[in-house]
């Protein structure tokens, strides 16, 4: 059994949450670059797998993919 003070556990959990959030942000950037047509669905699936809040699709899309002209 590992004994750990509650304050240390909170500190470790906060660090793990930051690491997951940082990973998610990197993954979202990679997804936007490499899977632009599926980016919203794949990014939402990654958020779900990491138990993070789902991104707002409209805000995410406008932030990651500024409007462009042409096809």
Q: Give start-end ranges of low-pLDDT stretches.
A: 66-71
Measured between the Cα atoms of the first and last residue, the distance is: 60 Å
Q: How much is the average pLDDT?
A: 83
Q: How many DSSP H or I helices?
A: 3
Q: What is the number of E strands? A: 0
Give a concise summary.
With 71 residues, the protein is an all-alpha fold. It contains three helices and no strands.
Structural key phrases:
single chain, 71 residues, mainly alpha, 3 helices, 68% helix, disordered C terminus
What does this structure look like?
This protein is mainly alpha-helical and 71 residues long. It is 68% helix and 0% strand. The chain has three helices and no strands. Helix 1 packs antiparallel against helix 2. The longest helix is centred in the N-terminal third of the chain and has 29 residues. The C terminus is likely disordered.
Question: Any chance you could write out the topology, listing elements then pairs?
Answer:
Blueprint: H1 6-34, H2 39-49, H3 57-64
Helix pairs in contact: 1-2
